[in-house]
Specification:
The complex is a heterotetramer, with 2 copies of chain A (343 residues) and 2 copies of chain B (615 residues). Chain A is an alpha/beta fold and 343 residues long. Chain A is 29% helix and 19% strand. Classes of the chains: A alpha/beta (343), B alpha/beta (615). The complex binds thiamine diphosphate (TPP) (2 copies), iron/sulfur cluster (2 copies) and magnesium ion (2 copies).
């Protein structure tokens, strides 16, 4: 979909090669199935040997993901996958490290590690399966649930103002920010590929349907009837058109407004520039309740920039030290400083 | 005419002044010189709790104690023979450590009205006769320093900052230490600030000459090389530094990169600081956002094949509990270092304590055994770090290494070991399938109950591990009841099995059976040793056992304990090891506890032992 | 012609089906009807680990066991008399719980080829004779349900979903339970869905009538009211619900708002769910971002004067360790509830275990004693919640309340207490200066060593507290060594002193001295009680002690234990209470452990007791 | 300074009344002294009785602050002050709750609680003393330290890209975002008053000099020579002028550019609008190393908006429940559901 993708077909792996022998145990109909499938579809195209992949997850329905991947995997503890992945990537930059997390795992208990990973910009793909609910613990509201959400722990409605995940990570200087959906396989594949190819932490929010505890949370964006009116699929360098070209978004100063293409020239539209952080900010803030706004919810890659990866600099510092002082010699080290001999 | 020199067996000096007075440097250089002379010695810095408490106040006093001798020296000394007091607050805070008749060297300028007020003293103790039972020497060091540096181009403030060198020079003279090492170190330290260097050197010599020329001192002392010390090459080492060196050595012995995930906390931060200097040893140091991230990153590094460690102190270790559970379940190697400090909660962060043993043993949910070992003194740390790493790697198990603030900041001569004599550490790497039909069994155990370490990147051995209960051998998630019981017992058995790979417990001194054995662990070693040596020299027959391995215990420990009528367990806590011993061996072990943020001293240790003996 | 009714003393039924088959509802309604008949009873749901494991698989089986009787019933029963199996997987997973000769009621439609394949069974056990030693009744319930609802306007899927009501009706008939309560509850449940309600009611009656009319059943049974039950008004209650009610009651008894800071975790979440329904009781429930924030928010609420609690399970409790230390230092009241589950790490989240006792005792840095109490069964939870709150508030101390998954999800009849008979809880509020010259001394202790609770907003009593060591009485930061020792001992003494305010330990049953006492805690109560009762009925003379207070122990515990030759300590862990008892009392207590995520059963308990007795 | 401030002089307290009897134990010269003084100066002007103030802190040099305030105070554990303050404020909305934190306390170990507090918008003042270093632990780099920072734990320079605190909290939908400095007492007082008067979480970043471990980190913004060239003091409704009116900032689309007032009309300048979240975002992103940019670093109140406070809604839900069901009656509760009598 995007012209910047250049894939490296050196292996002949297929999606099936990435399916482990473990029975998949999500609820029938869960959006996680599709995400699993798209990841398995994309990986063979990356030209990376299978044994070089490591999937790290926390706890949650989404976090069972690694069990189903025929790669190296670590199903860890709640909220800490990003921290574990950081240590792994620092010592093993040769691996392609993917973190699988949920809205609770990544943005509630694990929010700190998520944001610190993002500012440090390790080359890790961070996929957050956002179902706006705690699935595994059977249906409490999450930090992305809308205000007033009625759940087991909030029988008269939640009070918390939800996080806007893409805006949040932009605030932490993310170098790659994207949003996609479980129910749009092609789009999701495109975003996953872009994420994989980006050097740095790729933050991908994936709207995921939890048909048991929060069914239909995103139907307005995923179902045919409303999908193209309520969502906009942004592409770098392309004008912001939606509703099958019938509508567009233009910028009035810093304010996005919906225009009817019947009486607007495409040239006046906002051209998506994924390198512009302020515009990315405006994009991520197109986030009002879809019922209250005519501004569409954007999907696609919102922002990409380059910044050194933590593990590269770490490695460089080690190499520099070796270049300057020679490879460490423990005998020298312990014999350093003032010494004396007792004979 | 040279002044007469009197030989001494051992001497304890306490340098005390305001935080800004440079007493740590003074003490360290005196230590270096003494070490070079071949004295046995032990030191202890006593930092103030605040970064920079208001100048002149008691809270702002910084102390450094050195105990050196031509005999065996195991502690920094209970009581000092010489107290250097740079101001009134320093005297006030430290006088209680001085022996009656001891020497006070006081900077009289630090006893002016302002200083007295800041120290909350009504009268000047140098003048009011209250110090009559001591030998007081007053010197206006500030004035001497300013005079000496008048033409140096330095400001008064800068001049004042060098006055510790006068003290150093004076004490070097008094105890017949050569100045060379101090000069060398000053030259290195101030290489880029020649004027400061010159000022320091000038005052160092001034102090030395002052001793020789003034009438104030009639005698000099000397302490000769300690013949009890093993032959070989020595250097001084601090506890945390030795741990850092030990981990670097371990990573070399194992052929693995070293990874430290840590978050700063007193008194553990210096391990992070030290390791971060040694990147050329393939050392990766990561200052994480918190203690949880620190250990989790280490777990990630361990999964990837590094020797992974995490260092902290009590409150940080409390935060790591859940992740230690994960490492236990994953059966990956990791060393968790706890430099214990005064608790509970934030407690007394700059003080020492041994109150995290039970946390080390039990501070996690579920049946979650880890190996626990400890270090007893700064020059023991190097070996303990290697031993902890060896157990972690060879037994695929988390190891908790306990040290404390007293060891961390203390310094001692260290007989530099011959690294080539250390056994290699053998990671249990697997690179080929170990099951039937080319299947990988990541939780198949060997005869030590140890599973293989399968590194990501190994072709054909892709597999998943996690914190849910795992099926025997396959490592798949299993909710099977019998499997759970089996695995819980297996993880315990694996830890217990470590007992087959550690030395049997030795008796440090004293008889193999008898009336009393004193069982210690950690930093109480030197004090217990001195106390028992002195008592046994007086004719008693008391045994000392000092534990390095706290979980599992050495296999013969129970047997040994049963050979004594009484078991005394001194600890810097409210009784922790004693609980484990009582539970394990059903012996009526007697606790002896001090919970003052301070080590035991020899006097109180001897008193307690005599009390237990009914003497 | 009515079929004959046979009276039974006690019966155990296990309902088992796919997660979607509604077995929990079926079991609950059967329970309600039995309770209303005055049976003593005990139930246990056995959920699958996954939310919705693939339909038809063993992993997806959901079970509900009820044990009801006209005699005393203390456990949900080891072995059931009746097994309802809605599909092949349900039979496979549960057959081991059925007595030989027991009744199997099988939904034959659930044994079709697809179901057999999903359950990984080669042959149909209903056909291959492998169930010959049982009494098997096959009914195509699916077909019956679809037929019965043909004209109801419901889809096949919806019809299938109601088939559990047929089972319920049938069992109600078989055990002579009236349908009224079930009808009432269904009416309430489906008030807004009249078609579904009608379908459910129709199948309920269909099941009932089926029993009466088919030839399959020749006898009915009945279980009469249990005369052993105390007189009064009863209701059913689940463990977590009872805890929630207890805390609401405690807040009323103390006259304080209730504050819960929590983070969802199995099996503790239901306390949060329950409390969040009762806002009208001035209940504040806060779903925090994690367990650390949850307890910290509770500490803030406690500082502000609320009855503050935090609820979690093992891994979450591990995260709270540091903050529990803070609460200990602040000496503020807080109740920490741990609904234990299988560990270590994530372990077996849906299974029960008692392996967090040592974490409760020691899982923090420093000397950090808290009060630890536990509940033994669902209908004990209400009182234990009140007792925990009382101790926390009146002694200004953190209290750890231990329950487990077995208690949390189990249900029992509960004799509804008379709230007016409960003692008020008296917060130690201070509103006037308590020191000389109008000074506030926030850490001045009363004769229970308890400090006052001084609420922000109280004019003139502004003060600061924190996690650093505090000076006696003033509460100011203090690094004084002796003060530290004093305060450590004081915090311990305060916890120990609670022993003066709790009941002495009673002997549940058996002799006051003798050969064997069995000492339990928590959810093993019912099983131990039944086992000993049965053995003593056979002529043995075994004593039972069941602990509610784990720290401090009741004052007379040591004395009691010494009166028996042997002490057996059964625990659903690898031996934890036994460690504490051995350490404290130096008695050679014998551990008896099961670590399968399951409660003990009576058979194995009796066997172990006999083994210890050498029989 | 701002016209929206209306103060309520009902008490006759003075700054001295807010000083406790504890000896202040920061290093001589530490910037914390000034902040303490400004807070003590501002509080009496708020018209709130002294006993109604509660100061909650974590651990760090900055966190010793409550000891020096003659108010209620809680010196807690590292990173958790925001969580503790949340529980306090929920049950005691009558109190004026202030959180004192450091850059490590609030943005490293405590970052998650900080951001969750901010999205929940409890009415709490959150003052972060940013000295870009760990003071209390004697000088390691912090999450706000500049890249390449040489400290005890990073002898060859830190690797981490620092947080931009104001941008970070804006990403979490903060309702009040401001920045001030220890060395500008008047400005700091103004900002503190504005923070106190805002209903909701007021995030105030205060540049603070740690003269022991990071001396001069902000001198470029605090010392006369450069202060007015390198900093810009923004006020709502006022044009963005700096360097004593010699320079200004205007917006070129979404891009801020520095202009010479010699050849620019004031009317063309960016007028600061503290209600505009996108502009606030642009403001907070004026954050480059002052040596590398001619864009000045902004100080003042960047963003203010209204959103319900968590504790108010919580209270309302309790009140609604009471209104609907009557005040809870425990006897009724335990007698609810099916009951039966055994006689
Ligand atoms: C320390 C800890 N706290 C709480 C839990 C319980 N828990 C498991 S998953 C989860 C949240 C799941 O929500 P999310 O991350 O959104 O994942 P989802 O299940 O929705 O995919 C919680 C609270 C836990 N396992 N560990
Ligand atoms: C759990 C825990 N981890 C670590 C520490 C050690 N510690 C105390 S303060 C601090 C950081 C201080 O930095 P900052 O928050 O910026 O405050 P400052 O001292 O600079 O004001 C650290 C790491 C601690 N007390 N507790
Ligand atoms: S509970 Fe929801 S998120 Fe979890 S597996 Fe089921 S449908 Fe998916
Ligand atoms: S170390 Fe720095 S921040 Fe801490 S008190 Fe000293 S000057 Fe202030
Ligand atoms: Mg979720
Ligand atoms: Mg700081």
């Amino acid at each position: 979909m995007s012209e910047t993708i250049t894939l490296n077909h050196t292996t002949t792996l297929t999606a099936k090669d990435f399916a482990s022998d473990q029975e998949v145990r999500w609820c029938p109909g869960c959006g996680d199935y599709s995400i699993l499938k798209q990841v398995q579809t994309v990986l063979p195209e990356l030209g990376i040997p299978r044994e070089k992949f490591a999937f790290v997850s926390g706890i949650g329905c989404s976090s069972r993901f690694p069990y189903y991947m025929e790669t190296y995997g670590l199903h860890s503890i709640h909220g800490r996958a990003t921290a574990i992945a950081s240590g792994l990537k620092m010592t093993r930059p040769d691996l392609s490290v993917w973190v699988i997390s949920g809205d609770g795992d990544a943005l509630s208990i694990g929010a700190n590690h998520t944001l610190q990973l993002i500012r440090r910009n390790l080359d890790v793909q961070l996929l957050v399966f956002n179902n706006q609910i705690y699935g595994l613990t059977k249906g409490q509201y999450s930090p992305t649930s809308e205000e007033g959400k009625i759940t087991k722990s909030t029988p008269v409605g939640s009070i918390d103002h939800p996080f806007n995940p893409c805006a949040l990570v932009l605030g932490a200087d993310a170098t790659f920010v994207a949003r996609s959906l479980d129910r749009d396989p092609k789009h999701l594949q495109m975003v996953l590929k872009r994420a994989a190819l980006h050097r740095g932490t790729s933050f991908v929010e994936i709207y995921q349907n939890c048909n048991i505890f929060n069914d239909g949370a995103f139907f307005i964006f995923t179902e045919k009837e409303t999908k193209f009116q309520k969502g906009i699929y942004v592409e770098h360098g392309k004008p912001m058109l939606f509703d099958n070209g019938k509508k567009g978004v233009k910028l009035d100063g810093t304010k996005p407004v919906v225009v009817d293409m019947a009486d607007t020239s495409v040239n006046d539209l906002w051209i998506h520039d994924e390198k512009d952080v302020i515009k990315a900010n405006i994009l991520t803030r197109m986030f009002d309740d879809p019922k209250d706004t005519d501004l569409p919810r954007p999907f696609g890659v919102f922002y990409v920039t380059e910044r050194p990866c933590y593990e590269d600099v770490m490695k460089q510092q080690i190499q520099d030290a070796i270049d300057q002082k020679g490879k460490g010699d423990i005998v020298k080290l312990i014999n350093s400083g003032d010494t004396w001999v007792i004979a | 005419m040279a002044k007469p020199v009197v030989l001494k067996d051992e001497v304890t000096i306490r340098f005390a002044g305001d935080s800004g007075d440079g007493m740590q440097l003074t003490g360290t250089e005196f230590t270096n010189a003494s070490a070079l002379l071949g004295n046995d010695l032990s030191t202890f810095p006593d930092y103030p709790a605040e970064i920079r408490a208001p100048q002149g106040t008691v809270a702002g006093v910084s102390g450094f104690q050195i105990h050196f001798g031509s005999t065996e020296v195991d502690t920094p000394g209970d009581i000092c023979n010489v107290l250097v007091a740079m101001n009134a607050a320093a005297l006030k805070a430290n006088l209680r450590y001085l022996e009656v008749g001891g020497l006070i060297i006081a900077n009289s300028d630090g006893f002016d009205e302002k200083n007295l007020r800041l120290a909350k003293m009504d009268k000047n103790p140098l003048e009011d006769g209250s110090l009559d039972k001591y030998n007081v020497i007053k010197i206006d060091i500030t004035k001497i320093a300013r005079n000496a540096l008048q033409d140096s181009g330095l400001s008064t403030k800068e001049a004042d900052r060098s006055k510790n060198m006068f003290v150093l020079g004076l004490l070097m003279w008094l105890y017949s230490r050569p100045l060379e090492s101090a000069i060398r170190n000053l030259e290195a330290k101030f290489a880029k600030k020649p004027e400061i260097l010159q000022a320091n050197l000038r005052l160092l010599r001034a102090g030395y000459d002052y001793g020789e020329t003034t009438e104030l001192f009639t005698t000099r002392y000397d302490v000769k090389q300690a013949p009890t010390m093993e032959k070989g090459k020595y250097r001084n080492i601090m506890g945390n530094q030795a741990l850092a060196y030990g981990f670097i050595a371990a990573s070399e012995l194992a052929g693995l990169p070293l990874y430290l995930g840590s978050y700063p906390i007193t008194p553990a931060s210096d391990i992070l600081h030290e390791l971060s200097k040694h990147k050329a040893y393939n050392v990766h140091t990561f200052q994480a956002e918190d203690e949880i991230a620190a250990i989790c990153a280490a777990i990630g590094a361990s999964f990837g094949g590094a020797l992974a460690i995490t260092t902290s102190s009590g409150p940080g270790i409390a935060l790591k509990g859940e992740a230690i559970g994960l490492a236990t379940m994953l059966e990956l190697p990791i060393v968790i270092v706890n430099i214990q400090r005064g608790g509970p909660s934030t407690g007394l962060p700059t003080k020492t304590e041994q109150a995290d043993l039970l946390q080390a043993m039990y501070g996690r949910n579920g049946e979650c055994p880890v190996v626990v070992i400890c270090t007893r003194q700064p020059n023991d740390c190097f070996d303990v770090a290697i031993e902890a790493s060896r157990i972690a790697i060879e037994h695929m198990v988390p190891v908790m290494l306990l040290s404390d603030g007293y060891i961390a900041n203390g310094a001692e001569p260290w007989l530099i070991p011959d690294i080539t004599k250390y056994k290699k550490i053998n990671p249990n790497f697997l690179t080929e399938p170990n099951g039937q039909n080319g299947k990988l069994l990541p939780y198949k155990r060997d005869d030590r109950f140890v599973r293989p370490w399968v590194l990501p990147g190994t072709k054909g051995l892709e597999h998943r591990i996690g914190g849910l209960e795992k099926q025997h051998e396959t490592g798949n998630v299993s909710y099977d009841p019998e499997n759970h019981e089996f695995m819980v017992k297996m993880r315990q058995a694996k830890v217990d099995k470590v007992a087959d790979y550690i030395p049997l417990q030795e008796i440090e001194q004293g008889p193999e059976s008898g009336e009393l054995v004193v069982v210690g662990w950690g930093s109480t070693f030197g004090c217990i040793r001195t106390a028992i040596r002195e008592l046994n020299n007086q004719g008693y027959s008391i045994a000392q056992i000092h534990l390095r391995y706290l979980n599992p215990f050495p296999k013969n420990l129970g047997e040994i304990l049963k050979k004594y009528q009484k078991v005394l367990v001194p600890e810097i806590n409210n009784g922790q090891l004693v609980k484990i011993i009582r539970d394990k061996f059903l012996v009526d072990a007697i606790p002896f506890n001090k919970i003052q943020g301070l080590p035991f001293n020899v006097v109180e240790m001897k008193a307690k032992i005599l009390e237990v003996l009914g003497k």
